[in-house]
Amino acid sequence: MCGFVGYVNQSDVPSDTIVKMANRIRHRGPDDEAYFNDDKVTMGFRRLSIIDLAHGKQPMYNQDQTKVLTFNGEIYNYQDIRKELQNLGYQFRTDVDSEVLIHGYDAWGPDLLQHLRGMFAFAIYDSKTGEVFGARDHFGIKPLYYYDDGQTFLWASEIKAFLEHPNFKKEFNEDLLAIHLSFEFIPSKDTMFKNVFKLLPGHYFIHKADGHTETHEYYKFNYDNIDPNQTIEGDAKKIRKLVDESVDAHMIADVEVGSFLSSGIDSSYVLNEAAKLKPIQSFSLGFNHSKYSELSWSTEFAKEIKQDNTPITMTGDDYFDILPTIMYYMDEPLSNPSAMQLYYLSKGTRKHVKVALSGEGADEFFGGYNTYLEAKPFETYQKYVPKFVRKGLAKAVVNLPRFHGRRFLVRGAQPLSERYYRVNYVFDYHDRERILKNPDLNRDAGEYTKHIFDDVKGKDEMTQMQYFDINTWLPYDILHKADRMSMCNSLEVRTPLVDKEVAKFAATMPIKTRIRGTETKVSLRTAAMAELPEKIAKKEKLGFPSPIASWIKQDKYRKRIEEAFTSDVAKKFFNTDALLDILQEHINGKSSMQKIFTIYTFILWYEVYFPEDTTADTIKKVHRTDIDKIPVAN
């Protein structure tokens, strides 16, 4: 696991720029650094040594030294690819997975990507053609960004590296503010920085010698092969085999591997399978004297399977004090409250191991979210009640005081692309209209992501929901925070359930093997029942619970939020009276925690990345964090 940076050369760029860019992300690779440059391209690399510790240095070259690689991630089937390339005549100097990429690209070009199983982002420069090739794994586990304004082309594992390049124009992408307020992330290639783009999961780019950049899709998850004849028992048997094999592949390392452990089925199942291979230390996070703490569950489970568990705790002060630092490491604002827990869990885990397994992906692929249970009632309602009746009922009740069933009637008149709660996960159109200072910034979030639902038009609603989550929530929220919060602590997190082969099978599962009655991810639970204690396999999903909703009501934390809600940044973008009203609503018992947290974290992020717009007091607060260096305005 590593980090890399690079740029196409320009005459006015100082020679030490590449080192400064790489140092910005040295948390991704504290073990080693190296650089490459010629008259066209400059590349930098920071290494976190996991496999073949002595010989995995990058940048890495092909046999005739005409191609140069920098790579972040793990290729779990690299040994099979290595044999295939050896049969083609390629000679290997190391035992690292990186080398199969540089030789594989030399042999197959972009078709190399069809051979890979793993989590990866990499860039390859071809000195013969002057082209830069960049690729990202199937589901977006590892990040890759590029900056392209028509004159300057940069790429890096994290956006913050671009801050050190003199020709990077740091501009806030204000047009996307409403989209961020809807989703808590940007569900597209765009970012909150103008001309900075994510390379999408399952995509690659080619930056041509003439300055033109192309992007291409090489993989797309789909539900084209659903098999209605599959059964829960049969699918559970296949899942057991797949999880066992995937965990085995994800354990490859020349350093000790640990595992995250919550009280839920996903991380428990992963840990249990890993423990069959060799003893493995687990790590769990909780809160002292809090009903939100799951430490008793995780400690008991680890003890039951005879593995060591290390509990890690955090307080409200820990949580709020680290927020500016978290926003720095995130690159873009992300208001998922569990990110702070993941930061402290990773920080504690890194004291013991360099690699940790985690259970992300099970809910998206196997149908684990309770919201998927809504699909059947809405489908039935829309099938038997004419559209004009549904619209009339929605119009009649929308302005009435709340009553049981009102929300169902209002949403029942909407297509899934507008109704699915992820589309307006935090603020809906009317909420944004209330808080945005510039009403012209408000946008239709449903229209922004409708094309994703169009991809699975004609499928049942639950399948459409899962497809949407796999293409938005999973890469832009779940995997994004997992990468940033682990890598800022120089910890590699591996996700055996977010895997090419696991996903290939999950795409064949009919609804009846995903949910049964009110039971979610029923086939995965059935598989786990054969391996885990019943109370774990059947435990209700809690996510990553935290007491933040109650903390916000405490004076010392509420005052911090009030200060942010009346700051210069807040006044720049929002109607501050409306923000304070939302805060007061929460204090009075109407839960608005996610709304509060989304605005609060956005303000903190903006203060960190655009400090020219902040007061001296705010800058001082940001400097109290453990960020090595606050970004300055260009």
UniProtKB/TrEMBL annotation:
<feature type="domain" description="Glutamine amidotransferase type-2">
    <location>
        <begin position="2"/>
        <end position="210"/>
    </location>
</feature>
<dbReference type="InterPro" id="IPR006426">
    <property type="entry name" value="Asn_synth_AEB"/>
</dbReference>
<feature type="binding site">
    <location>
        <position position="97"/>
    </location>
    <ligand>
        <name>L-glutamine</name>
    </ligand>
</feature>
<dbReference type="GO" id="GO:0005524">
    <property type="term" value="F:ATP binding"/>
</dbReference>
<dbReference type="Pfam" id="PF00733">
    <property type="entry name" value="Asn_synthase"/>
</dbReference>
<comment type="similarity">
    <text>Belongs to the asparagine synthetase family.</text>
</comment>
<dbReference type="InterPro" id="IPR029055">
    <property type="entry name" value="Ntn_hydrolases_N"/>
</dbReference>
<dbReference type="InterPro" id="IPR017932">
    <property type="entry name" value="GATase_2_dom"/>
</dbReference>
<keyword id="KW-0315">Glutamine amidotransferase</keyword>
<dbReference type="InterPro" id="IPR001962">
    <property type="entry name" value="Asn_synthase"/>
</dbReference>
<dbReference type="GO" id="GO:0006529">
    <property type="term" value="P:asparagine biosynthetic process"/>
</dbReference>
<dbReference type="InterPro" id="IPR033738">
    <property type="entry name" value="AsnB_N"/>
</dbReference>
<feature type="active site" description="For GATase activity">
    <location>
        <position position="2"/>
    </location>
</feature>
<keyword id="KW-0061">Asparagine biosynthesis</keyword>
<feature type="site" description="Important for beta-aspartyl-AMP intermediate formation">
    <location>
        <position position="360"/>
    </location>
</feature>
<feature type="binding site">
    <location>
        <begin position="358"/>
        <end position="359"/>
    </location>
    <ligand>
        <name>ATP</name>
    </ligand>
</feature>
<keyword id="KW-0067">ATP-binding</keyword>
<dbReference type="InterPro" id="IPR051786">
    <property type="entry name" value="ASN_synthetase/amidase"/>
</dbReference>
<keyword id="KW-0028">Amino-acid biosynthesis</keyword>
<comment type="pathway">
    <text>Amino-acid biosynthesis; L-asparagine biosynthesis; L-asparagine from L-aspartate (L-Gln route): step 1/1.</text>
</comment>
<dbReference type="InterPro" id="IPR014729">
    <property type="entry name" value="Rossmann-like_a/b/a_fold"/>
</dbReference>
<keyword id="KW-0436">Ligase</keyword>
<keyword id="KW-0547">Nucleotide-binding</keyword>
<dbReference type="GO" id="GO:0004066">
    <property type="term" value="F:asparagine synthase (glutamine-hydrolyzing) activity"/>
</dbReference>
<dbReference type="Pfam" id="PF13537">
    <property type="entry name" value="GATase_7"/>
</dbReference>
<protein>
    <recommendedName>
        <fullName>asparagine synthase (glutamine-hydrolyzing)</fullName>
        <ecNumber>6.3.5.4</ecNumber>
    </recommendedName>
</protein>
<dbReference type="GO" id="GO:0005829">
    <property type="term" value="C:cytosol"/>
</dbReference>
